[in-house]
Amino acid sequence: MQVHAPQFILASASPRRRELLTQIGLHFVVQTADVDETPLLGETPAALVERLAILKAETVWNTRRDVLNTPVLPVLGSDTLGILNGELLVKPRDVEHARQMLRQMSGQQHEILTAVALATTAGVQLAVSRSVVKFRTITDPEILAYWETGEPHDKAGAYAIQGLGAVFVENLQGSYSGVMGLPLFETAQLLAAAGIHTL
Ligand SMILES: Cc1cn([C@H]2C[C@H](O)[C@@H](COP(=O)(O)OP(=O)(O)OP(=O)(O)O)O2)c(=O)[nH]c1=O
């Protein structure tokens, strides 16, 4: 088996982000950043998603610098959230919260924002992907059955486009990988600007 040297550090616990980066042939190590994801008072969703992506990247960047006191590999951080009628769609706290979000999303369009931040010795570079997702009508029994599968528990907006949740998605305008948690077009551009190429 060939062992590849890591090209960067992924500051994320999300298996989806690992999967997407592996899909485009990148080699990386994971160091998770446990950050407080609570919105600040009056903070817009766009400002929140950018702040959290930067915070995740910078948190890991700073720990690496403290521990090693040497320049380190670039650090990639990311955050995903949804917006419906100006309200945030985050990870559900419980079945009631998921039910409340999915009822509102039923038959409607919502937006998914994913921000990607790359920390390097040159500072932090940021890219944001914005997608519009249209859901078909979803019934209450479907919402409960979906909750029982476990899939929505750790997903922004309480669904996964890459999973069973795909059956709710009538159409999508934007980035499929962005909705899934890491927009590959924007991520590849950020990495390329830091000298990390996929092709
Ligand atoms: C909308 C949607 C979200 N998601 C996921 C992507 C993210 O993992 C998650 C949103 O939570 P995030 O806080 O962005 O990420 P995370 O907590 O999973 O990982 P970390 O903070 O360590 O980076 O929702 C899907 O997997 N599919 C989808 O269709």
Search tags:
199 residues; alpha/beta; 34% helix; 7 strands; binds thymidine-5'-triphosphate; seven-stranded mixed beta sheet; Maf protein; 6 helices
Give structural notes.
The chain contains six helices and seven strands, in the order βαβαββαββαβαα. With 199 residues, the chain is of the alpha/beta class. It has a single domain, classed as Maf protein (Alpha-Beta Complex). Strands 1, 2, 3, 4, 5, 6 and 7 form a seven-stranded mixed beta sheet that branches. Helix 3 (95-105) crosses helix 4. The longest helix is centred in the first third of the chain and has 24 residues, at 45-68. It is globular, with a radius of gyration of 17 Å. The mean pLDDT is 95. The structure holds thymidine-5'-triphosphate. Thymidine-5'-triphosphate binds at residues 12-14, 16, 32, 37, 56, 78-80, 91, 112, 154-157, 159-162, 165, 179-181.
State the name of the first-level CATH class. Alpha Beta
Strand proportion: 15-25%
CATH topology: Maf protein
Structural class: alpha/beta
Q: How many β-strand stretches?
A: 7
> N-to-C terminal Cα separation, in Å?
21 Å
Tell me the series of helices and strands, N- to C-terminal.
EHEHEEHEEHEHH
Enumerate the distinct ligands: thymidine-5'-triphosphate
Q: Name the shape in a single word.
A: globular
Report low-confidence residues grouped into runs of 5 or more: none
CATH architecture assignment name? Alpha-Beta Complex
How many structural domains? 1
Radius of gyration, taken over Cα atoms and rounded to an integer in Å: 17 Å
Count of individual helical segments: 6
Q: Give the averaged pLDDT, no decimals.
A: 95
Could you describe the largest sheet, including whether it forms a barrel?
7 strands, mixed
Report the helical percentage.
Answer: 25-40%
